[in-house]
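Please, structure for the following, as tokens.
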Amino acid sequence: MKLSHRVMIGVIIGIALALGLQLGMMITDNFLIVWIIALLIGLLARVIAQLVLKNFDTSK
């Protein structure tokens, strides 16, 4: 995996964690649940980003 792809995935994970924290804060006040929601959204974003970049690499 190229360095640029790793940077893109890192940025996507950071944005997903921030959005997950915002969503978790809207849903509940329990800090543990907020972090679980944020981490699940971050993991989902990472998997999607890796699949998209992998498909993008194989199409060229």
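The chain has two helices and no strands. The chain has a mean pLDDT of 89.
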